[in-house]
Amino acid sequence: xxxxxxxxxxxxxxxxxxxxxxxxxxxxxxxxxxxxxxxxxxxxxxxxxxxxxxxxxxxxxxxxxxxxxxxxxxxxxxxxxxxxxxxxxxxxxxxxxxxxxxxxxxxxxxxxxxxxxxxxxxxxxxxxxxxxxxxxxxxxxxxxxxxxxxxxxxxxxxxxxxxxxxxxxxxxxxxxxxxxxxxxxxxxxxxxxxxxxxxxxxxxxxxxxxxxxxxxxxxxxxxxxxxxxxxxxxxxxxxxxxxxxxxxxxxxxxxxxxxxxxxxxxxxxxxxxxxxxxxxxxxxx
Amino acid sequence: xxxxxxxxxxxxxxxxxxxxxxxxxxxxxxxxxxxxxxxxxxxxxxxxxxxxxxxxxxxxxxxxxxxxxxxxxxxxxxxxxxxxxxxxxxxxxxxxxxxxxxxxxxxxxxxxxxxxxxxxxxxxxxxxxxxxxxxxxxxxxxxxxxxxxxxxxxxxxxxxxxxxxxxxxxxxxxxxxxxxxxxxxxxxxxxxxxxxxxxxxxxxxxxxxxxxxxxxxxxxxxxxxxxxxxxxxxxxxxxxxxxxxxxxxxxxxxxxxxxxxxxxxxxxxxxxxxxxxxxxxxxxxxxxxxxxxxxxxxxxxxxxxxxxxxxxxxxxxxxxxxxxxxxxxxxxxxxxxxxxxxxxxxxxxxxxxxxxxxxxxxxxxxxxxxxxxxxxxxxxxxxxxxxxxxxxxx
Lengths: 285, 394
Fold this sequence. Notes:
Order of helices and strands of chain A: EEEHEEHEHHHEHEHEEHH
CATH superfamily of chain A: P-loop containing nucleotide triphosphate hydrolases
Number of strands of chain A: 10
Structural class of chain A: alpha/beta
Helix content of chain B: 55-70%
Oligomer: heterodimer
Structural class of chain B: alpha+beta
Strand content of chain B: 15-25%
Mean pLDDT of chain B: 88
Number of domains of chain A: 1
Number of helices of chain B: 13
């Protein structure tokens, strides 16, 4: 058994909004091992985005213990946490979050800037990474000169250029049409298999979630189920786990997305891949 | 590496918003330029005054009745020529003592006239003050002793009254009395706001007779050396006070005049610089404002940078550099503009202007400091942004 990439023990996260405490997570325990392929599913407002922010070290828990890359988040200062993110975590966002006016290769090289890598080496590594995601011919294009799928692939290259232990993908296909989304998913899965980076993908698309080896269903700030199964089709049992109560969450999602998150707000290809209206980046609390 | 990136990003941000950057800089440019120009004018004026006071002569001691202070009323002089003799005895050399009794008068020659200052003086004037003649001769002791009606014209008086003729030997009428022109001064130009070419020198005795008075306005002494000048002044004042117990006398040196004038001009320069400084401050507020806008606009970028490992400091430095770059570029431009304008003013207007290195260093230092001071708050705000909130910003 290798050391866990991320370990959360009874982690909770409470927000103070105008003096009212809102619990986004109410005691979550889970371990992400190296090389795992995990889907985190749940409706809007379930706390899955909060969980993702915590696992990525973007946020700190208000209770419980969170260990990322062997380091307890509670013991780290803000700069140390930033360094930990740089070394251990790669992020892929639904909205890509590429720097406009900056070429693909420089976008990919950005995390290396904060690692203190020299300019020349940065570019070499970024270019190589872009080659791995199939964008070797787009090094000097700016985001607005790239298609949505290409932009997300640049973002994936940026997430992986630091060779992190965990790749956190928050609705990575949410802004893409189904064919492009499928290609991006395949790329993520291939990189997960090739490089051994743990892939944690937040989604509320059941079809997308079904491809993962492990599915964690989050609802009302708690983990409702955590099921592992073999690579689909590789073993006899093959089919996605059925213990998962997530399907029952779907109507909730459709009718009751959180305030400020109108259904379908992101304008994604909702009809193409799933039955669910897409929400924004996912309500945290 | 990180700092290099911060520079690159800061420059890129300024380039991306060229118009906005330029307008923001404009405040700093105007502020720095006005500091440079106004300090240059103040310094130039001060230098000019110093030159003019020095140009009067060296080791001069001016003795006048009354106190020499700003805001005191002039005093009617009780001095007469006997007092001058007494002062000469104190000095020990009559050749070092000059006097003046001056009054405005109309000088006429033929059908031309000029309102000018007639000064009754001793023959010692050219050796006490720095004056030289372009033509003819100066007054002699005999001219003074015999109250001879002879006159030495200032350059502009000579030009006005005798535009085409040689004034030497011609008659001029001063306050209705005819004098013969025996000499013309070389041009001197302005000094302390007075046209020193607009005067006529006549023997003091003739002048006193002209105005029916025995008084003289003041005494000037050329001290033998600088070291004993103050002591000499005290002895002269003591002697005059003994002769005129009811009147106060003052003896001032050029250094004292320079000191007083320098103080006044220094205050003036300071006030001008402060006014200009206010505009620089306003420019700084503009920078602060734009930086806050810039932070808000780029909140998502800040969130992303933090997500991939930028520390709060990295973000803060990036925005601080942007602010400092704004004000520094503005400061350099303002300096160039200020120096250029000051040189033009000096060359093409009667106002003197002198560029001093300290004013340039100060203006640039202040503009960079303005960038730091007014950039710190936006930069800190950017550095402290919660990455989760920042990433979600619209």
